[in-house]
Structure formats: C-alpha cells, structure tokens
Input
Amino acid sequence: MLTGVTLTDAGIDAAALKPTEVDVSRAAALDVETVTIDYEGARHLPDRSTLAVLAETKRVRVTTPVRVDGFDPLGDDSALAGLPEGVGRVLVAGHDAYLTSEEAERAVVPRLRDAAEAAADPWVGTEGIERPALAVGGTQFELLSRSTTRDLRALRAAGFEGDIAVYTPTVLTDDEDAILDAVGAYTARRGPVRAALPEDAATDATARGRARDVLTQAVRDYALVGDKETVADRVAQLKDAGADTVVGYPARGLESVR
Output
C-alpha cells in the first residue's frame, strides 16, 4: 500500500517511474493524473498490456530514445508497435548508458525531427539538445538544474508560448540524511557539483564536512526536497517562471508517496 504525502499536495502534477525500480502498474494508486515511464533499456520496457491497463486510469507517456533500435524513425522502429493507442511519447536523444556504441554515433537532429512529426502531441527532452528540441516543437521537457528558473524566464521573455514540463527527482521529507541517501549520488554526478566535491567524498548520509555542505545546497538545486510546504513553494516558483507541468520522480520509492 502506498503511504506518505501525496504528490499533488506538494504541487506536483505528474509522476515519473523507473521500471527497474518499481512495478509501473502501481502508479494507478497515485493521486496524479499523468505518469511518465523512464527508458532503462529495451528489456525493461513495460509490455503492451501493462501500459494499456495503466492508460485506463492515467495519462501515460513513455520515454523513447530516438537513436535506439526499436524507436529509431530512420531505421528500426518496431518497438512502437508495443505502445498502445493513447500512450504518448517523450522523445529524447538517449542516455549513453542505454545506447550501444553504434546507436551513440547516430545523428540526433534528423531522428528527433522525424519522430516529432510522426508522434501525436510529443514531449521533447531538452537535456543536451536544447536548440534542436525547441526547433521541433512539442512540450519542452526540461531537467531541473540550478539554472532552470532563469532559463524558463528567458524562454518566456523570448516569446516561447508552448508548454514546458520540468522533470525532477523528488524527496518529500525534511530529514537531511534521508534526502542525501535518496538524491546525494544523483546530485554529485552533475558537473558543477562534482567539481566542488572533495575527491572520493561520500555522497550519501555519511557525507561530512565540506562534502556535506556542498551536497546540502546542491540537492536543492537539482531536486525537489523538503516537507510538502517547502516543495509546493518551489513548484510555485517554477510555475511562476514559466513551467506548465512539474514531473516528480519519487526518489525514495512509491512507498514514500501516495
């Protein structure tokens, strides 16, 4: 049974799930209307029946890397047949961890353009491909960083009127040790944080001294953390800057939310 604070109580509009961590069908019990499913390799892609059942109660989107065999619009796109009608897509370049060396060499821009033309109402992941993503249109799917608020304001000031969604790991607690255990390592992989951390420093609740000071600040730049009021205030700031949808990945698992 899911317990804890509700995502919508904290202002979050949608939940992101990792199929290697959780049975995605459990998302039916969440109080949000929209669910996105991260891509973690072809063998972890939920099957058609699982997606279809979830789509009966939720708006579902599946992350589909355009360079990966199965989702490549200029090559093998056979995996698209496994997506039921009504399940939307989040088009991304794809993380190198889930790409073969051959896939990683494929050009992103023409594939992104063709996939966006073929998909119905796609979301387009901007990480590392901000300009091509903006050029193909669709909902811009931003990864939360320390510059997100500034970037959102700049987009809106430049006249961008399309939808913008922000993806962020989320930890709905003010327990600092729990926060670091959940998102410390994730945050430490971000370039500016990695550069600021002492060499070989712990990145979880065991972090001490300068490492803990750096991480305590950084987790608030790259994730939504804190009690529901704190997170709700941060979500409100993102929406005031121009975000339409905030997508939270429950970094402590579904047991921490409902």
Notes: The beta strands are 14-17, 34-37, 59-65, 88-92, 123-125, 139-143, 164-171, 224-225, 245-250. The chain has two domains: 8-173+226-256, 175-224. The chain has a mean pLDDT of 96.
